[in-house]
C-alpha cells in the first residue's frame, strides 16, 4: 500500500481547491501513538490557519472564563480565599503553556493525530460556581475526572454512556445549562455597562452600551448561521464586541496589566501554600466526595460531545476518509491525562474535546495535526505576550465569546434533540429537576427514569439490558445523592445539613 508521501499530488493538478483538500484527506494514514512527521504523514496548508485562529480566540476566552468563575466561586465559598482577575489570568497562562505543548502540539500534532485536541468543557462553565459552593476542590475534581475518563477509555465505555443518556435527557441538560449560562453572561454585560465610570463619564450613563453589543451580536450570529459560517462566530462576534465597546467610549475600562513573560510554572507555588496561588492547599477526603458528582457529570457529557465533533467531520469530509476521523476513545484518553497534568501544574481548566477547533477544521476540510501544531504555537505565544489575556477577560470580549461559542450552541443543540414529544417529556423533567435541585442530580434521576420507561420513550427500555436499565443508572443515582447529601449541597436551598 502506497504511503501518504507517495500518493500526494500538488494542488495544481486538481480542478478546484476543494478537490485537492478532499484528496489529501483520502490519502492520509495517521499513525496512532507513533511519530507522525510533516511532509511524510501530513502537510501544512493555509486552510489550517482558520481552525487554529478560531481555536486560539475561543480557548483564551474560555480558559479565562473558567478561571474567573473559579476565582469568584471559591472566594464566596472559602473564608480565607480572595482570588481576582490577576490570579485568573496567571493560571490561564499556565494552562496555555504546559498542556498546549504536551497535549496539543506533541500529542495531537505528532503522536496521535486521531485524537482531537483536549480543550475546554463548555457545558461545565455555568456549573463552576455550584462546584465551588458545594465544597469541591479543583485538584480533586481534576483527579477524579482523569481517573473516570481513563477507565471509560480503557473499557470503551464512551459509546455506552451515549446509549444510557437519551437525547431527551441530554437535550434537557443542554437547554438548562445553556439558558443558565446565557442569562449569567447577559447579566454580566448589563452590570458592566451600568458600572462604567470615569472622570468624564457618570456611572450608569453608558448602560446602553451593553445592550447595543448584545443586539449586534444576535444579528451577526444569526447572519453567520444563515450563511453556514457559524464556525466564525467566536472571532467575528468577539472582535465586533471589542470594536463597539472601544468606539462607544469604554476604552478607559480596558487596562493592560499583564506583563510579557512566563507565569510561575512551579506547581508548589500554586498548590503548596495557603498564602499564595490557589490558597486552598491540597485536597482532602471531603473535597473528593464533594467533587465526585460533578466529575461523573463531566465525564458522562464527554461522549455525546466527542461523537458530535466526529459527526461534524463525517458531514463535511468526503468518502473514504475513515482513517482521519477522530477516535472517541483516544480523545478521551488524551483529555483524561491532560486534565490531571494540567491541573497538577497549577491549572484549573475542565477539559473536553476542542470544539472551537474541530468544527472550523471540519468545515475547512482539514485533518487534525497541521492545525493542532499551529494552534498550540499560537496559544503559547499569546500566553507569553501577556497583554492579549487582558483583552480576553474584558467583559465585552469574554461574555460575547461565551455566548456565541458555548451557551447559544448549547441551547440550539438541546432544542434539536427534543423534537419528538417523548424526548420533550424527558427534557422537561430534567430541566424541572435541575431547577429544583441541581443539574447533577437532574441528569442522574432523569437518566434512571428514562432508561426504565417511566418518562420519555417507553420503547427505549425494551432495547436496554438490565445492567443499562438498572445497575448503572441506579448506581450513579445513589452515588450522586450520597455525595450531594454528604457535602450539604442542598443546605442553602432547603436547609438540609451536610452529613460530614
Automatic annotation (TrEMBL):
The keyword Transmembrane applies. InterPro entries: DUF3360 (IPR021794). The keyword Chloroplast does not apply. Keywords: Membrane, Transmembrane, Transmembrane helix. It comes from the Bacteria. The chain crosses the membrane at residues 49-70, 131-155, 167-186, 206-224, 231-252, 288-307, 368-386, 392-411, 423-449, 469-490. This is DUF3360 family protein. It comes from Seonamhaeicola algicola. The lineage of its organism: Bacteria, Pseudomonadati, Bacteroidota, Flavobacteriia, Flavobacteriales.
